[in-house]
């Protein structure tokens, strides 16, 4: 089956933070010999390399629909990634210590997309319930400004702390020559017609005074995606304003 | 239809962060695209494209039956990456923590997990 291998290799080796990494011994498919490999876990993909500085992975294991369990191999600190299905292989790995093994088993068993989605939906539900419960009451505000409660809730900044560079977003944006308003440096989005997949959630512009538009969003549950769309329009407008005020494009 | 001048009819299936494509009468996919670090662009009517950060000029173009379908796909694909999901999680966690003063991940015993931290693993 074809795969966009270059993209996979890029994802494996790019700057984005790994969820776990380290040396593990991997049992070969036919032989019982173990090979020492450098493993990198990103999202639901477990890549393995010959060395930490190898330019591309030797292989990858997609961690969906699998079980991670301890196993009875002769090798100590061994664990297995087991897939269902008739033709599926079980990957036997071994760590160097009890602590390393436990750390890997933990991070691998929570690596699946499905697990992530489950947690996100749970939190989304919690947030919706809280929003409904607090409607009309005083919501927490990240700014001590006397905004109306509904608006202040929607104004909570998403992720000011994530610099786009960590996700490779800045590289992408620079390549496109996209310009960012200086205020929303935490947000790389450049308008909805340039939406790209790795876009960080938008930061509500700090300058803005409350306006009617935020109130209209406040009535509906503050689902991440809806806020995402909503703020992308605000950012597009801001960006337009900012561009008009600039003399020339930023480098 | 993948990155060629010729359009081929394919069955396309989005499963987690992979876009699988099949010949219409086959059960096994011909191939898959990993949807991380990619850009989904709405092209002309009924058409969208996927391109990847390391090779931005190469576009995988898809033509849908209707414009509505096309927009649905664009939306779905933009939210399909693991990284997007991770950011949503961190966003919600943050929001809830602000509102309640409590970390909602504590009840699941995963608040210390590296993958849920803000700006984890600076390299």
Automatic annotation (TrEMBL), chain A:
Bilayer-crossing regions: none
SMART domains documented for this protein: PH
UniProtKB keywords: Cytoplasmic vesicle, Endosome, Golgi apparatus, Phosphoprotein
CDD domains: PH_Ses
Pfam families reported for this sequence: PH
Compositionally biased spans, kind Basic and acidic residues: 145-156
Subcellular location: Early endosome; Recycling endosome; Golgi apparatus, trans-Golgi network; Cytoplasmic vesicle, Clathrin-coated vesicle
Stretch list, region Disordered: 133-162, 175-222
Superkingdom, taxonomy of origin: Eukaryota
GO biological process, one term: retrograde transport, endosome to Golgi
Ranges where the PH domain occurs: 17-113
GO cellular component, one term: trans-Golgi network
PROSITE patterns named among the record's database cross-references: PH_DOMAIN
InterPro entries associated with the record: Boi1/Boi2-like (IPR045188), PH-like_dom_sf (IPR011993), PH_domain (IPR001849)
Signal peptide positions on this chain: none
Family from the record: Belongs to the sesquipedalian family.
Function: Plays a role in endocytic trafficking. Required for receptor recycling from endosomes, both to the trans-Golgi network and the plasma membrane.
The name this protein goes by in its record: Sesquipedalian
Organism: Bombycilla garrulus
UniProtKB/TrEMBL annotation, chain B:
InterPro entries reported in the protein's UniProt record: Boi1/Boi2-like, PH-like_dom_sf, PH_domain
One Pfam match: PH
Gene3D superfamilies in the record: Pleckstrin-homology domain (PH domain)/Phosphotyrosine-binding domain (PTB)
UniProt xrefs under SUPFAM superfamilies: PH domain-like
GO annotation, biological process: endosome organization; receptor recycling; retrograde transport, endosome to Golgi
Top-level taxon of the source organism: Eukaryota
Residue intervals passing through the bilayer: none
GO cellular component: cytosol; early endosome; recycling endosome; trans-Golgi network
Boundaries of every PH domain copy: 1-82
Protein name: Pleckstrin homology domain-containing family J member 1
Organism in which the protein naturally occurs: Bombycilla garrulus
Lineage start: Eukaryota, Metazoa, Chordata, Craniata, Vertebrata
Gene: Plekhj1
